[in-house]
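User: My instructor asked us to take a sequence, write out its structure as tokens, and then describe one feature of it. I'm not sure where to start. Here is the sequence I was given:
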Amino acid sequence: MTDLVERAQWIAETVLLPDAAEVDARGAIPPSHFRVLAREGFYGIAAPDAGLDFETIVSVIETLAGGCLATTFTWLQHHVAVIGLANTTNESLRSQYYADLVAGTQTSGVASAGALADPPRLRASRTEGGWIFDGDAPFVSGWGIVDVLQITGNAGKTVVNALVDAKNIPSTRYDLVALDATATVRLTFDKVFVPDSRIISEVPAEQFLGVQHLGSRLSGAMPTGLAVRCARILESHGRTEMAESIAAQAAEVRSTLDAALADPQAMFAARAAAANLAYRAAGAVFVAEGAGSVISGSHGERLVRQALFTLVTGSRAPMKDALLDVLTS
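Assistant: Let's start with the prediction itself. The structure tokens for your sequence are:
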């Protein structure tokens, strides 16, 4: 779907990138960013009937990430609920929310890190008429921006996914060094009852963990998108050979990430390589811009901080180990 990628490029260059420095400085994403993405059909790209292949979705994410990483990261969370509702057996829940989520007239975030933690930080236990969610969900982005939230609780051998309203849950906002505009919080669930009518799915824990590499591939498009943007900035500074080198390395990392779809254990190292590339590419921009990079608001300082974000976002222990090996060798 070349047309979709071209529209993503137009949005990145004419809407997101011109605002990127202000978004970073103010710590807030203009609602107009999300309205444009909705108008152009980008909230429904993960819907099965959209007919998009995985490669196109990755290209869209990478392209948008090169415009404004905060907007892209917040928008990216939305698609978890779209996929969940597309596959749910809860027909009533799907009929109530799915069409609006695909259209982007309602938007969603996701809270799954608590279920993935070891030991789990957010647990789900069965009770009459529904489930009790208890614990906390760290690093939930889009709080105060999104309308609903897909939450995931660990029930032992099963994980439970539910769609709840994104309000009236105690929250503590993180003060992030980068992408603070994502309005990322820690949510506290004090024995919160979620009725069966709001349950999306109950999935074997092994199955849930078995598809996490797909999310890692999608999130891997953010550091490659950042690296490509860095290459373009280096080109604008007359560093053509360096820009070409970064672009070539981005293509190589992209291929490694794609290959890891068939080997989930290889995804950790591939994802680490992507983050490492973004980190080095941003450092190159910082140096190329000279002393001006140390001034708040410059491309260099913003990109370096955003690259730091890609080093840790979505990270699990094997990815962390792989990155530490690269960074200390």
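For the description part of your assignment, you could build on this observation: The longest strand covers residues 130-140. Try explaining in your own words what that tells you about the chain.
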